Amino acid sequence: MSKPKVAFFDFTSCEGCQLNKLNFENDFLDMLEHVDIVEFREAMDDKADEYDIAFIEGSISTPTCIERIHDIRRRAKVLVALGQCACSGGVNAMKNLHQPDWVREEVYGNEKYRFPSIPAQPVSAVVKVDYEVRGCPMSAPEYLHIFKSLVMGRKPEIFDHAVCVECKLKENECVLDKGMFCLGPVTRAGCEAICPGNGQYCTGCRGPISNLNLEGAVEMLREHGFSETEARKRLHLFSANELV
Amino acid sequence: MDLQINVHHLTRVEGHGNIVIDMQSGQLKKAQLEIVEPPRFFEAMLKGRNFHEAAIITSRICGICSLGHQMTSLKATEAALGLAISEQTLKLRKILVHGATFQSNVLHALFLAAPDFLNVGSVFPLINTHKEVVLAALRLKRLANEIGELISGRAVHPISCVPGGFTKLPTNEELAALREKLVTQAIPDASFVVEVVASLAGAIPDFVRETEYISVYSPQEYGLYDGQICSSDSGLHPVDDYLRVTNEFIVPHSTSKHARFNRSSYFVGALARFNNSSALLSPLAKDVAARLGLQAPNYNPYMNTVAQVVEVAHCVEDTIRLIDELLATGIKAEKPNQEPTRYGRGMATTEVPRGILFHDYTYNRQGQIEKANCIIPTGQNLANIDDDMKKLVPEIIGEGKAAITKKLEMLVRAYDPCISCSVHLLDVQFDE
After folding, report:
1. CA distance B260 to chain A (A)
2. φ and ψ at B274, to 5 degrees?
3. For the whole model, what pTM was predicted?
4. Which of A13, A43, A94 faces B122 most closely, judged by CB atoms?
5. How far apart, in Å, are the Cα atoms of B279 and each of A13, A97, B91?
């Protein structure tokens, strides 16, 4: 059996998820024994015509992005959205909350008309996405799990419980009880509660669980001393497209 | 003679850019790096955000320099809100900057730039032909990432760095174990990489264009974490004068703004730091510079990659020194200082791997951002890259289109551009 052809593409993003993937220094050479990387602009010159698995980082935010993603989808057997920008629009979607002209004017002033921009969208808003690796940055263990499953022809396991559950399993001290803000109760698990594990609050970088009770979440945060405005603002940080 | 080059979406750089060259009847009409990365609008996203969120958001400007953005963001917030940090926090942050710098420098020099010197299209063929050096580079990168993971929770988009300090601290034992790896593994690996780079030095194009070099400068240490702005033309300038130094302007061929100070363009990055601060390098780094034939001032932009390798040695050695200082007193339990003593404007600068970075925030009395501005290194280098290309193309015009294209690609890569950051990449277009 020939090795699966794998390609990586980047759209509007910080490329941190691709970098995270290069950070598997210990597993990097082993992974290369099982796949052929046929296109990866950030690391190599080669280009290919078709791919067994295409990994997409970043959101769709310009007219050119739409043309490129359709072209990639036509060539790809399986398409995986990598990281929160690709899965939901991520932080890029925060600009969608403002008037587009105001946003462009804030950065480019009177020259704003030179730089076309459309609302930041997830990849799934334009083409069919087969699998998602959530998180900002994507969770490295989850990526390895999906990568290995697809290479071995298995269906990857997808989480849909809250970060809170993982946090309790880790026996971390509750962040809300410490008086800090936290989105762990409403954010999708899979990160092993890495932020609370490091004394930080959950910023909601993996997006909301599918059965989110938004008003309940706002009420819970209000009870912990955070204003409704502040609660909603922080909920929108990584999930503006899903929650507004 | 007529020549047209168009490299669309240059490879082995971070972000999207095109190189466009148009020469007609021997006259160079156009030589520019077009930046086509979609704009991100971070300054607009920051408006109304709480001071706890600024570093979390700005780290997302760039996955490769996320630590540097966090450091600069935290310093700007601390300056605006009057938050003092402890000596321990300062030392831990300096170690984090060293780790992020040598991680990025190894990635660029060995995985992105080295394939050009060996005439291959990526690092992947080198795994078979130069396995030992690839493994040494991977080990160095892993160790640099371990520094980030230990002290900041995660190498990409750090977690525990917050205004006023850290939410979690490493233990003395963890720091001692890290020190041991730096001494027994990173120093020999770095020395091996230096010998390999020395053997490739003949493949570095011979091109010279003197320009203005701008970096962070500190009289006490090689300028990375903090200091004043230093220009090779006009000397030292306080951080608060950053707008007078950068003078950002918009050009039609780039979604990233350009910058200029005393001349039409200036250089930022490892070579600028080396030219301005080489006397302050660690002893090992000075030996490496001598071994690689790099002397300040050096006016060959292709030597930026060599300066990055010199910095790898400096960062490793100086991290060992900082860990020794921390272990001498032992890590003390500390909570971050997050009680603002004032509200207003704060400006800060840090050297990230690609050059000098500025963040500038104004906070209202609720501790929310009213105005934000971030000036990124790659944006500052774009005008200088265009000026280099305008001098380089006529000098090598007899070498043929393929050789010219390769040298132009190598030139842009030498700057290690980070285009997501600047907007914020690369395509070469020759018009024949």
Report:
1. 17
2. -60, -45
3. 0.93
4. A43
5. 38, 50, 21
Beta strands B17-24 and B429-431, pairing class: parallel
pLDDT in tens, chain B (432 residues): 788 998 888 877 777 788 999 988 888 888 888 876 666 678 778 989 999 999 999 999 888 889 999 999 999 999 999 999 999 999 999 999 999 999 999 999 998 888 888 888 888 888 888 889 999 999 999 999 999 999 999 999 999 999 999 999 999 999 999 999 999 999 999 999 999 999 998 899 999 999 999 999 999 999 999 999 999 999 999 999 999 999 888 887 877 788 899 999 999 999 999 999 999 999 999 999 999 999 999 999 999 999 999 999 999 999 999 999 999 999 999 999 999 999 999 999 999 999 999 999 999 999 999 999 888 898 899 999 999 999 999 999 999 999 999 999 999 999 998 765 554 322 233 333
> Chain centroid to CA B22: how far?
30
Phi, psi of B269 (to 5 degrees): 130, -165
Chain-chain contact of A46 with B44 (C-beta, under 8 angstroms): no
Residues of A in contact with B139 (CB under 8 A): 25
- State the nearest Cα–Cα gap between A17 and chain B, in angstroms: 7
ipTM confidence score: 0.91
Phi-psi region at B258: left, alpha or beta (left = phi > 0; alpha = psi -120 to 50) = beta
Place of tokens 């790898």: B312
Helix axes B87-106, B66-81, angle to 10 degrees: 150
Domains of chain B: 3-331+342-431 (1.10.645.10)
Which amino acid is residue B136, in one-letter code?
A
Window 6-45 of B, Cβ < 8 Å to A = 9, 11-16, 36-41, 43-45
Q: Can you tell me the distance from the alpha carbon of A201 to that of B58, in angstroms, rounded to the nearest whole number?
A: 17
**Interface check A173 vs B, CB under 8 A:** no
Structural domains present in chain A: 5-151 (3.40.50.700), 163-243 (no CATH)
Q: Is A11 on the interface with B (CB under 8 A)?
A: yes
Show residues of chain A in contact with B12, CB under 8 Å.
41-45
Sign of CA dihedral A130, A134, A139, A142: negative
The amino acid that residue B369 corresponds to is I
Tokens coding B339: 């009680």
Contact in structure between B338 and B401 (CB atoms under 8 Å): no
Nearest beta carbon to residue B159 from set A16, A42, A194: A194
Distance between CA atoms of A22 and B142, rounded to whole angstroms?
10
Distance CA B163, CA B70 (A): 10
The residue whose two tokens read 């999708």 is A188
Map residue A39 onto helix, strand or coil: strand
